[in-house]
Write a structure and sequence with these properties.
The chain has 845 residues and is α/β, with parallel strands linked by helices. It has 4 domains: 8-29 and 645-837, no CATH class; 40-162, no CATH class; 188-257, Alpha-Beta Plaits; 267-620, Rossmann fold.
Length: 845
């Protein structure tokens, strides 16, 4: 909804109970005009002076080039800039007869009055030497002549829209609107877009000029080329200084972009070339700090000797369930744990290797070999094996915080969402149940498991019938499926004419779902992460997996080669664990329940997941299918880590005693928790028609109680369920308390009656309350949000209450409540007033 890419701040951990707070919203600016008001003569003289200054600079360059024996028919690269809030008539800057060439157009946000953002349009134009007179004539006609047809100044739409003309810097070629211009002094990868010149040999002439200059300057140019009608695209490796050093080289360019480098670029290299790229990256990698948290991989072991893993994986952090297996990754045929280790530490390696920035590792690695070198464990032993494997690193480094990542799953024990011994053990381990001493809640990411497609026409129907693997049905774990953004197939001749199977942002071809599960069980997966894509043969049905549609990572056999590719839900799970570890390292005081909440809270569904529609256009009856395919969607690390001035996240970590034994020796509900949040009621009422958004996420860990007689009753499997509800518009606090209390005392959960607010929630009360994490998005006007300042957390039944003889009715349950308020624009500062009132220092990221 909003633009939250500006200044960022830490989330606000508020005390319990919360206090009401207010914020101030700047008023919106005026309307955009077609042309700014100009004093015609004054404006023309200003632009003529700027052109004259450019002319003098061009003469100096011409003299220097002549003295150096270089060609004097160079082109000038100029930048035309509009006033804030106004557009340029850019099509009039492309004058083919005069050989004046429009290279690119870039919008740029700039601060305006009151801090609001407005857009400036910038156009990069190549003007051949000697053609400045043509531009001068256009401005002169604007200054002194009128159009016979309209009576207005000639060329007014073009000239009046130009605020400034100047010589362009290298940044004028950078067209990645959402990404800053690279400023590293080291060589990095660039996608260089070259124009094709003029005439039949124009492309080859421009390309030859660029290659000659690149060789002279020591710029590396890869052999691959993409030839489009008006551009030749090259992948180069250069410093900023090298690109700035040659006017002839700049004369070949139209754009510079961040390269869409795929894993294939690296996997096609021989071992020596791969080693060179890895060694370059190692010079920029800073090991994690002492005391850093860890991602603990429960997999097939890891080869600690890999140069990219050594900085963050110590020998004492390598373990195995059976010492006879050894701790290294010897799983046949090509290993698995080492591949996952690279993703857990760096994410996909392409940007790490292709970039030139310093890489500060935020967390460590731990590895427990849960899988034998050759054959699988007996599935009936997996719960106990998992428990033992988690204990190994906890004994070795008991003070270290960690996120467990489990990629090992079983097909045979799936049961349409019903708990198994393995999934129940995982729920126990997350909750820290049945353990002596202080509570030891754990954060665990588990793979949803893969489906294998043999034909293109099996997608996505097979994904919808292939259910999430055991133990992915665990309530407390973050179960991870996969989606994909990888739709660019590289230049491997073996895949010429092939097309990507999944669309950008859609379900990954290997992902399983919970569509066939019984409705009483949680929606799984919880989230989806990148897991790669498959390609479809030109015959339209055969599928294969080119490297360009996979994720680049560390190879197991480092003697053969250092880099390889991987994908599927294993890769997605490790990426989720890495994200969780980054959040955990940034906020070490946050509970595992809170980190899990932030993961889900930050997730969004792509338009492909919603069949090209907006979330507001999805009906309540359609959301079930969306949730059982994608969970809550694709998490966003930036949103999980930071608030912004217009997007404030409040976090409550609290606990509740759900039940009690009354004087009649009956187990009854005991309490609810009412959170009165810092609420900007007056300001919301002042801007009553402004569209705003609120997201609420409630996260807690249930204690499981599986059994064959109880497996179809979710209340009896879980120790206790929690629910949240929000005060409705026109509902007083007294009415809200009364309504919630009445529902909390019901023996069984039943649908709540419809109310005027229900359509404003994305999922609604009855759909969002599955499993042990609940998240929903409310969208409406600021006036309605002004009345929603109370959120209640209350219990519903579970085996702590129903199984009295177990004497668990006085247990307490931790929970995390995460609430985000979003306004539509960066300029709406709601962060500062809130953080001031809760007396938390403002910490800028």
């Amino acid at each position: 909804m909003p633009d939250t890419q500006g200044e960022q701040f830490r989330h606000i951990l508020i005390p319990v109970p919360g206090r009401s707070e207010s914020f101030t919203t700047p008023r919106k600016g005026g309307q955009r005009l077609a042309l700014p008001d100009r004093v015609r003569q004054t404006h023309a003289r200003k632009l003529q002076r700027e052109l004259e200054e450019i002319r003098r600079g061009a003469e100096e360059m011409r003299g220097e080039r002549q003295a150096a024996g270089r060609a004097t028919d160079f082109g000038l690269i100029l930048e035309f800039i509009s006033d804030p809030g106004f557009a340029l008539k850019v099509e009039s800057l492309d004058r083919r007869q005069s050989k004046i060439q429009l290279l690119n157009v870039r919008p740029e946000s700039v601060p305006g009055p009151g801090g609001q953002k407005r857009t400036v349009t910038k156009a990069t134009v190549r003007v051949p030497y000697g053609k400045l007179d043509r531009l001068a004539a256009i401005i002169k006609a604007y200054r002194s002549k009128e159009s016979k047809k309209s009576g207005k100044p000639r060329n007014e739409e073009l000239v009046a829209g130009i605020a400034e003309i100047r010589m362009a810097a290298l940044e004028a070629f950078w067209t990645e609107e959402s990404k800053p211009f690279p400023r590293a002094d080291t060589a990095i990868a660039w996608e260089a877009w070259l124009h094709v010149g003029e005439g039949d040999r124009g492309r080859e002439t421009v390309l030859a000029t660029f290659m000659d200059e690149a060789k002279r300057l020591g710029i590396t140019v890869e052999r691959e080329q993409i030839r489009l009608p008006e551009n030749t695209i090259l992948l180069i490796r250069a410093t900023r200084q090298q690109l700035e050093a040659s006017l002839d080289l700049l004369n070949c360019l139209t754009e510079l972009r961040e390269p869409a480098v795929t894993a294939e670029f690296f996997t096609e290299m021989n071992p020596v070339e791969q080693a060179a790229w890895v060694n370059d990256a190692l010079r920029r990698i800073i090991p994690p700090a002492d005391g850093a948290n860890a991602v603990c991989l429960l997999d097939t072991g890891a080869n600690q000797g890999h140069p990219l893993l050594t900085p963050a994986l110590d020998p004492e952090d390598l373990h195995a369930y059976d010492p006879a297996w050894g701790v290294h990754d010897t799983y046949t045929p090509k290993g698995h744990g080492t591949q996952m280790a690279g993703l857990a530490l760096y994410g996909e390696l392409v940007p790490v290797l292709a970039g030139g920035e310093i890489v500060q590792l935020a967390h460590r690695l731990e590895s427990v070999k849960i899988f034998p070198p050759v054959r699988a464990n007996d599935p009936r032993l997996y719960g106990d094996i998992t428990r033992e494997c988690m204990a190994r690193p906890e004994v070795t480094a008991p003070q270290r915080q960690r996120v467990f990542s489990l990629q090992v799953t079983a097909l045979e024990t799936r049961g349409f969402g019903r708990p198994t011994s393995w999934s129940s053990t995982l729920d126990q381990l997350c909750a820290g149940a049945e353990e002596e001493g202080p509570s030891n809640q754990r954060l665990v990411c588990v793979s949803a498991g893969n489906t294998s497609l043999e034909r293109a026409d099996e997608y996505p129907s097979k994904n919808e019938t292939e259910q999430v693997h055991d133990p992915g049905q665990a309530w407390n774990a973050i179960t991870v499926g996969c989606c994909t953004e990888k739709v660019t197939i590289g230049g491997d001749a073996a895949f010429a004419g092939w097309q990507p199977l999944a669309a950008r942002g859609a379900l990954g071809p290997s992902s399983t779902t919970s569509i066939v599960w019984d409705d009483q069980w949680p929606f799984k997966p919880d989230v989806v992460m990148e897991g790669g894509n498959k390609a479809v043969n030109p015959d339209g049905n055969s599928v294969d997996t080119p490297d360009s549609l996979q994720l680049l990572t560390t190879n197991t056999d480092i003697r053969a080669r250092l880099l390889t590719t991987t994908g599927d839900t294993s890769a997605a799970t490790v990426l989720a664990a890495r994200m969780a570890a980054i959040i955990q390292g940034e906020y070490p005081r946050f509970w595992p329940e809170t980190v899990r909440a932030l993961m889900i809270h930050s997730a969004r569904w792509t338009r492909a997941m919603l069949d090209g529609r907006a979330a507001g256009d999805i009906g309540k009856d359609e959301w079930r299918e969306v949730l059982r395919r994608y969970g809550y969607g694709l998490p966003n690390l930036g949103d999980a880590l930071r608030s912004a001035r217009n997007s404030v996240t409040l976090i409550c970590q609290d606990e509740i005693q759900p039940f009690m034994l009354d004087e009649d020796r009956q187990v009854k509900t005991n309490e609810l928790r009412l959170h009165e949040l810092p609420w900007p009621r007056d300001v919301l009422l002042l801007h009553g028609t402004l569209d705003v958004e609120m997201r609420v996420t409630l996260s807690y860990f249930i204690e499981p109680n599986p059994g064959p007689r109880l497996s179809n009753n979710r209340y009896r499997y879980s120790s206790c369920g929690l629910r949240f509800d929000v005060r409705r518009p026109a509902e007083s606090e007294v009415e809200f308390r009364s309504r919630i209390n009445e529902e909390a005392r019901k023996e069984d959960e039943s649908p709540v009656p419809s109310d005027p607010d229900s359509d404003m929630w994305c999922l609604g009360f009855n759909l969002r309350h599955r499993g042990s994490i609940h998240s929903d998005i409310w969208r409406g006007t600021a006036a309605d949000l002004a009345e929603k300042n109370h959120i209640a957390v209350f219990p519903v039944s579970g085996w702590w209450r129903l199984r009295k003889h177990l004497k668990m009715y006085d247990r307490r349950l931790r929970y995390s409540l995460v609430v985000t308020i979003r306004a539509p624009e960066q300029t709406v500062d709601i962060y500062t007033p809130i953080v001031t009132q809760v007396s938390v220092p403002v910490t800028v990221a």
